[in-house]
Design brief:
The protein has 291 residues and is an alpha+beta fold. Helices cover 47% and strands 16% of the residues.
């Protein structure tokens, strides 16, 4: 609460708008020519849906910059498609021209129907493989952004995302909507976020971004805030022996480069030894900056 005062003047000056500023790119080179022709309007339709739908019931401020990169992987008919999608979002750093990466997700399990010229409408009570998928990620993007400005501020949006997961799993669609041993699943991400197991880590997200925001003005205050989140995870690692969490992996997929940038000269070089154990997929990146 004490740190949110820092942003009040900044946020109050922003115009009320839809929540997302979303850029959509589509690659359908793996599809037959006929299907490519049927998808010529797809990117524009998806972009319009993401940017004109109100996903919250609050007066939103600055739109969240995000992008969807959609790679079509197959078509079983003129309307049935499978795709892989990379979702990225970021938020501005206070009093800076830089942005902080918030979300980087590669979801390879999307199957849906789309007919050229189709109008898309949000529906919170009925599952649709196309719009429910978009609604899920819109709420994840908004929730993760909100957590950086207020401790657990994204809870209402994560709960909506969880409701969508439940609709999806009850629809008979297991592709990403149900519990899975896969490295990534939509079910796993939102359930980890809302789990009490990771609540201490999640509540540290706000302090971490406060550290990012003040770093350029007060490094002595900002850097320990950033380091503190690593130690939260280190305590968890020492207790459990490993951290097998879609949420934590997703955090590091977005943040490992930022952590290196802001902690490269941290007085305790052991910080990167800890990161190597907490975040094995990016250990080579940490090795590169270790003394």
């Amino acid at each position: 609460m004490k740190y949110t005062v820092l942003f009040l003047l900044f946020l109050s000056s922003l115009a009320i708008a839809q929540e997302l500023n979303c850029r959509v790119e589509v690659n359908y080179q793996n599809l037959p020519v006929n299907n490519r022709e049927l998808l010529t309007d797809f990117a524009g339709v998806i972009e319009n849906y993401m940017n004109t739908t109100r996903f919250t019931n609050v007066d939103w401020g600055q739109k969240i910059d995000c992008s969807l990169s959609i790679f079509f992987t197959g078509a079983s008919s003129d309307v049935d498609y499978s795709a892989q999608i990379v979702i990225v979002s970021q938020r501005p750093i206070y009093k800076s021209t830089k942005n902080s990466p918030i979300l980087t997700v590669n979801d390879g399990q999307w199957q849906f129907k789309y007919q050229k010229g189709q109008a898309l409408y949000p529906n919170q009570t009925t599952f649709d493989p196309l719009t429910s998928f978009l609604d899920y990620y819109a709420n994840i993007i908004i929730g993760m952004d909100s957590d950086t400005f207020e401790p657990a501020g994204g809870t209402p949006y994560f709960k909506r995302a969880q409701d969508i997961v439940n609709l999806g799993s009850n629809s008979g669609s297991s592709l990403g909507w149900q519990s899975s041993s896969a490295t990534y699943s939509r079910w796993g991400l939102v359930n980890d976020i809302l789990s009490a197991t990771y609540s201490f880590f999640r509540n540290s997200i706000f302090d971490y971004h406060y550290g990012i925001d003040v770093f350029s003005q007060n490094k002595q205050l900002g850097q320990p805030k950033i380091e503190s989140l690593v130690n939260v995870l280190w305590v968890m690692y020492e207790k459990l022996g490993s951290i097998n969490s879609v949420y934590v992996r997703t955090f590091f997929d977005a943040k490992h480069g930022e952590l290196i940038d802001y902690l490269s000269d941290y007085p305790d070089p052991e910080i990167f030894s800890k990161l190597k154990k907490i975040d094995p997929p990016h250990s080579s990146k940490y090795d590169a900056v270790m003394p």
